[in-house]
């Protein structure tokens, strides 16, 4: 059975959109999500990463009140007999409970959820130790590290990853495209 690694934030759930919504409300700002092209949203609000981490921890329930991106549930369920899916997130460990709660509430059929940031070499080490042959990711740094380490990546197209290119990285628009590629990949195995 093929093992596919899944990034969590901004691959399964539009966390950035949620963060902008909640920060705008709390700080009385009016930043338009569509105009956000930098990766570190906290910088737009003048927050340090430590402040942002605190904000995230105290607002976890509110931040996760958001559905999975379209076609994720269908794709994962449809491929269940061919593919094992495991979430491998770069989140800090303190944010894992809210991730697991969201996965459960949304009834996503994934094998388990691992905190890849706990591994010394992050997602690559986590993916290699678990025999992952394909990874779905949005973050350019993680995508490149996985690709350099020999793991194929489907990169979800985002404004902040436009420069990211590698022979093992395939750019995809959305989860319908992900589904088609995994079907073809699974048939070859
Ligand atoms: Mg991500």
From TrEMBL:
Under Pfam families, the record lists: NT5C
- Report the domain of life of the source organism: Bacteria
Stretches that traverse the bilayer: none
InterPro entries (UniProt xref): 5'(3')-deoxyribonucleotidase, 5_3-deoxyribonucleotidase-like, HAD-like_sf, HAD_sf, Nucleotidase_putative
Q: Which UniProt keywords apply?
A: Hydrolase
Protein name listed in UniProt: Nucleotidase
The similarity annotation says: Belongs to the 5'(3')-deoxyribonucleotidase family.
Would the keyword Transport be found if you checked this record's keyword annotation?
Answer: no
Give the Enzyme Commission number: 3.1.3.-
Enzyme class name: hydrolase
């Amino acid at each position: 059975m093929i093992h596919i690694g899944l990034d969590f934030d901004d691959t399964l759930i539009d966390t950035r959109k949620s963060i902008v919504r909640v920060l705008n409300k709390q700080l009385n700002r009016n930043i338009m999500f569509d105009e956000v092209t930098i990766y570190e949203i906290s910088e737009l609000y003048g927050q340090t990463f430590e402040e942002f981490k605190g904000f995230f921890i105290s607002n976890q329930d509110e931040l996760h009140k958001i559905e999975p991106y379209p076609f994720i549930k269908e794709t994962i369920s449809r491929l269940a007999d061919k593919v094992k899916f495991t979430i491998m997130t770069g989140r800090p460990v303190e944010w894992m409970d809210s991730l697991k709660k969201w996965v459960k509430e949304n009834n996503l059929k994934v094998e388990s959820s691992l905190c890849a940031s706990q591994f010394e070499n992050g997602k690559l080490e986590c993916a290699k130790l678990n025999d992952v042959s394909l990874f779905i990711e949005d973050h350019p740094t993680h995508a490149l590290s996985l690709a350099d380490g020999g793991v194929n990546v489907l990169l979800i197209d985002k404004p902040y990853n436009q420069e990211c290119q590698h022979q093992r990285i395939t750019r995809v628009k959305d989860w319908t495209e992900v589904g088609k590629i995994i079907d073809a990949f699974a048939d070859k195995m």
